[in-house]
Amino acid sequence: MMMTEERRYKGFPETLLSWYDREARVLPWRSDPVPYKVWVSEMMLQQTRVDTVIPYFLRFIKELPGIPELAAVPEDRLLKLWQGLGYYNRARNLKKAAEIMMEEYQGRMPDTPELLEKLPGIGTYSAGAIASIAFSKPVPAVDGNVLRICLRLEGSREDIGSPATKKWAAGLIRQWIPEDRPGDFNQALMDLGATICLPNGEPLCGNCPVSPYCRARNLDLIREIPVKAEKKKRLQEKKTVLLLEHGNEVAIRRRQEAGLLSGLWEFPNVEGHQTCEECWNYLEKLGITIIDIKALPASRHIFSHREWAMTAWRIQTEKIAGPDDWVWVSREELEKKYSVPTAFRAYRDMR
């Protein structure tokens, strides 16, 4: 990594904070930055865009306004509140952490990054963000946006995905972070990365308040930084979804308690792309009498490391039947009670 001359960043924190005071995004968790709201927002923002999170956050806080309510909520209700955000283990970890806070911290959040990081679902970045924003601890919070800013400021071609790069960036920020406004400083970096120092070689350098400090801009390296190592190819999986209907009821089943989308509800499905005849034979063996079967549009869903290519059949049945782990529910119940992941949205929302 390039050595950082302290004098080169003289005035940097003040310049960035002055910009933040004028241009900070208006976000619901910032208007009332109590520890609980900061924590919930940070968990929701992992892997999810801010504009997507806002309505989920408001609904979540309205129904579960504090740690006691979160610790006591039934898991099915929790997952229904989370439906659409994906990465459902984030929700489960929120509940587990709330239970620990009730048992070990009298219903309060611990206020140091070291203690926060011991809780389920809270990593180094989240611990730094919560500790600095909610408790004014002068610690860094290094996410992808902040890493990109650091690498461009230093003109560094190090791999943005490397743990060593993240550690280096945290050290860099420790030199800058003001003790009187650590939370604002970290959020200013987050906003800068989200609105100006954009990825994919198209930052808005003309609007950047700290562009005089940026080596990548001065050396015309903006489109080359950050450097990313080549990603591994996603695992491709073929599935056939069976949308079984009997009047106003549809069949669903709960996924296994381990692995991808664990514990959520799904429409019955089988591996591979099955023909009409293959589906008919499969369902007859399960004791299901078929009235009609029609092909539905194909659908695709991309996870972080795998991709589902789905074909589907809409099947009208004569009577409610099927394996013991199938549950037949009304469309209204499906909408209000059961958490069906976004991967099945095309078929979940079908009428």
Query: In CATH's first tier, which class of the largest domain applies?
Result: Mainly Alpha
Describe the global form: elongated
Return residue spans where pLDDT drops below 50 for at least 5 consecutive residues.
Answer: none
**What is the helix/strand order?**
HHHHHHHHHHHHHEEEEHEEEHH
Outline the biggest β-sheet.
7 strands, mixed
The average pLDDT value, as a whole number, equals 91
- Strand segment tally: 7
Topology:
Layout: H1 12-23, H2 28-31, H3 35-45, H4 50-63, H5 67-72, H6 75-82, H7 89-104, H8 113-116, H9 124-135, H10 144-154, H11 163-176, H12 182-195, H13 215-218, E1 235-246, E2 249-254, E3 265-266, E4 269-271, H14 276-285, E5 290-302, E6 306-317, E7 326-330, H15 331-336, H16 345-348
Parallel strand pairs: 1-6
Antiparallel strand pairs: 1-2, 1-4, 2-3, 2-7, 5-6
Helix pairs in contact: 1-12, 3-4, 3-9, 9-12, 10-11, 10-12
Please characterize this protein's 3D structure:
By secondary structure, the protein is α+β, with helices and mostly antiparallel strands. It has 2 domains: 10-224, Hypothetical protein, domain 2 (Endonuclease III, domain 1), CATH 1.10.340; 235-348, Nucleoside Triphosphate Pyrophosphohydrolase (Alpha-Beta Complex). Helix content is 43%, strand content 15%. Strands 1, 2, 3, 4, 5, 6 and 7 form a 7-stranded mixed beta sheet that branches. Helix 3 packs across helix 4 (50-63), helix 9 (124-135) crosses helix 12 (182-195) and helix 10 (144-154) crosses helix 12. 34% of the residues are buried. The model has no long low-confidence stretch (mean pLDDT 91).
